[in-house]
Write a structure and sequence with these properties.
heterodimer, A: Helix Hairpins, 52% helix, 0% strand, globular, B: 312 residues, alpha/beta, Rossmann fold, 8-stranded mixed beta sheet, 8 strands, 14% strand
């Protein structure tokens, strides 16, 4: 996937903006086209709104997709497959200590891309990606994340999505889930 | 300094038009306070009440009954607009009071309009602030487009935001139509403005690409015209943190959807003292110099009048 010049324009960025700017611009653009957003409330009909959101998602994926893969995070017990079509092997990472990797494992095992999950759950690709990466600093407030994780887990038909969202929040809020009790 | 002033006088005043689709968003209060704010920088300002159907700037300024107004100029009782300028309680601000309650004044014909515009550009002041009426009539649009900068006022309410888009679209198409009177372009514009749902052309962006595909020369002319359309935006009466991003959001949406580049000048807080200043007929910028509204207004006027230094 290569970046087209208009991808930068769609996100309102100068070509070559850094990843932080891309993420911020993407979040801003997405919120601009939420159905209740004051600035666009009466401007677009549903079809146009969806079209605009698709363009934004697409531009974002093109730009992010062509970024060099991030350096592997410090000690991570689970191997994190990078693409949906990679073969998933081994057991699911522990939902308590690695809830993000756990989600990714099940998503890939079922052959879903982030985009497919985004379409079903109406949660943005960036947020889903941050949830899987456990990017706690950039994720929205825990109350929202709980809802997103719950939906994400339900979409993957995890046994207990509600309980799983609680695990995720515990880790996000710094609770020590590694302990046995 | 003196040289600069005389040079600017020779080129005519800088004309600012304050408009916006909807009534009651604070256009007149903002126009008055823009004038008062500019005047504090020691430049002279003529405030023109161009709300031809419902003028009331004299009341905002505490000038009870101006001896002459725009009606006298339009009906040729006075020969120049300069004669209609009345001093106001604010130093350096003059008022050209609006036409009073004459139905025919609300719709001047083309030659009356061009005469008003010509005389506005001949006023011997540094700045002219035009306070436009509500709506998107051709008069309002023509005054808006004739200014050096057309300023759109919006409040954080869906109806106001909706009207602002409608106004921008109307002003934009009016500009294209005046610049490009070819029948095919006119027909395409008409189709867009009528909002025919079957039409693929819904926005200025669509229109330009459509025309481009038919006739690249006309398309290029429209692009040039479009890029010179750069109105400005003020968000008035914000009273919630979530309103602070509305201005930038509207700018983004205009760019994405219409292909129109708006300049965001700033947000003005909802301030009870502004209401009081209206009731007491004293412009806030003059009499409540330290309130948040006036401070924010200074920023807005600074952005509006800022001239990028020319690279030499």
């Amino acid at each position: 996937m290569t970046i087209r010049p208009e991808d930068w324009e769609i996100l309102g960025l100068e070509p070559g903006a850094d990843i932080g700017q891309v993420r911020r611009a993407y979040r801003h653009r997405k919120s601009l086209y939420e159905p209740a957003a004051l600035a666009t409330y009466n401007l677009l009909d549903d079809e146009e709104r969806d079209g605009m959101v698709d363009r934004i998602e697409d531009a974002y994926r093109r730009i992010i997709g062509s970024e060099p893969p991030a350096a592997p995070e410090a000690p991570s017990p689970a191997t994190r497959p990078q693409a949906a079509n990679e073969v998933v092997i081994g057991n699911a990472p522990d939902p308590l200590s690695d809830p993000g990797a756990h989600l990714r494992f099940h998503r890939m095992a079922k052959g879903f891309t982030l985009h497919q999950i985004a379409v079903e759950t109406k949660i943005g690709v960036a947020i889903l990606e941050q949830i899987e990466n456990e990017d706690f600093e950039v994720l929205p407030a825990p109350a929202f994340v709980r809802g997103h994780v719950h939906q994400f887990a339900r979409e993957l038909k995890l046994a207990d999505a509600y309980e799983f969202a609680k695990f995720y929040l515990t880790k996000m809020q710094g609770g020590d889930t590694e302990a046995d009790e | 300094m003196t040289e600069e002033l005389s040079e600017s006088r020779a080129r005519g005043p800088r004309v600012w038009a304050v408009g916006g689709g909807k009534g009651g968003v604070g256009k007149s209060v903002i126009a008055t306070n823009i004038a008062a704010s500019i005047a504090r920088g020691n430049e002279s300002v003529a405030l023109v009440d161009a709300d031809l159907g419902g003028a009331n700037l004299h009341t905002l300024l505490g000038v009870p009954s101006p001896k002459a107004n725009l009606s006298d100029f339009i009906s040729k009782r006075v020969s120049s607009l300069g004669e209609v300028m009345t001093p106001t309680p604010i130093e350096n601000v003059w008022l050209v009071s609006g036409a009073k309650a004459l139905v025919e004044m609300a719709n001047p014909n083309f030659s009356q309009k061009s005469k008003i515009l010509r005389h506005i550009n001949a006023l011997e002041v540094d700045h002219v602030v035009l306070d436009l009426g509500a709506g998107t009539s051709f008069n309002v649009l023509d005054f808006f487009l004739s200014a050096r900068k057309g300023v759109l006022v919006v409040v954080p309410e869906p109806t106001s935001v909706e009207n602002a888009y409608h106004f921008l679209k109307a002003a934009f198409f009016r500009k294209l139509k005046r610049a490009q009177p070819r029948a095919q372009v006119k027909a395409a514009i008409k189709e867009v403005m009528n909002g025919s749902s079957r039409s693929k052309v819904k926005t200025p962006r669509d229109l330009i690409s459509q025309v481009w595909s038919v006739d690249p020369d006309v398309g290029a002319a429209l692009v040039a015209e479009a890029s010179s359309f750069r109105p400005a935006l003020i968000v008035n009466r914000i009273d919630h943190p979530s309103h602070e991003r509305l201005g930038e959001d509207i700018v983004s949406a205009c760019r994405d959807y219409f292909g129109i580049r708006l300049q965001f000048l700033g947000s003005l807080p909802n301030d009870k003292l502004v209401v009081r200043s209206v009731v007491e007929q004293k412009p806030a910028a003059q009499f409540f110099a330290q309130i948040p509204f006036v401070n924010a207004m200074r920023g807005v006027v600074g952005n509006m009048t800022y001239v990028r230094p020319r690279a030499s």
